[in-house]
Amino acid sequence: MSMNIFRLCGDMSHVFSIIVLLLRLRVARNAQGISLRTHELFLLVFLTRYTDLFTTYYSMYNSVMKVLYIATTASIVYAIRLQEPICSTYDKAQDTFRHWEFAVLPCAFLGFVTHLISGGGIFSLMDIQELLWTFSIYLESVAILPQLIVLQRYRDVENLTGNYIFFMGLYRALYIVNWIYRAYHEPGYRHHYVVYFCGVLQTLLYVDFFYYYVMSKRKGGRFSLPTQTK
């Protein structure tokens, strides 16, 4: 994958979002308002997407970023699950999205069907890596859902948590611009329509959050989400 300013800014936004969340956990020493299930999904995304770490070398930058995503996300999951006093503040009652049934299984099915339709097999290492990569693309598009649901239930969003979600959404939006840029400026660029669809879907999930985040910053008040009417 070639580098351009939009991809670099997207990567830095992603890294910054993770740093903000780690800072939030380490400084506040609590996981209130944080979804463990979202980060379990992101960890699964990275583990299934980056299996080529063991088979293919692209660049030092590429390898370092992959290891960084896996290691930092694993540390977030560990802290929320097992590290005191952080784990004691995690509210399971608010983080109830059934991610295995409604995210992992449907995405696994879509990934498998997409892989077969595109002519892929299941008998070689390359086929398995391609299948897992496709699954990870689908899963990443919905991985933020448990976190957004938790925020809606809490309504009042802690500042660092809000910044974390904002930079996660910005990362994906910048990657969409990166794809457009590459399509126009990179000869022989290979279009991935599943990637496009999932990237747009993932960005759309953030739209409501972006609106209230920006409004709160403009007004200089506490960031809170509106109460949903029945």
From TrEMBL:
It is found in: Endoplasmic reticulum membrane. The keyword tRNA processing does not apply. The keyword Manganese does not apply. Keywords: Endoplasmic reticulum, ER-Golgi transport, Membrane, Protein transport, Receptor, Transmembrane, Transmembrane helix, Transport. InterPro entries: ER_ret_rcpt (IPR000133). The chain crosses the membrane at residues 57-81, 102-125, 131-151, 163-181, 193-214. It comes from the Eukaryota. One of its GO terms (biological process) is protein transport. Pfam families: ER_lumen_recept (PF00810). It is a multi-pass membrane protein. GO terms for cellular component: endoplasmic reticulum membrane. Belongs to the ERD2 family. PANTHER family: ER LUMEN PROTEIN RETAINING RECEPTOR. This is ER lumen protein-retaining receptor. It comes from Cyclotella atomus. The lineage of its organism: Eukaryota, Sar, Stramenopiles, Ochrophyta, Bacillariophyta.
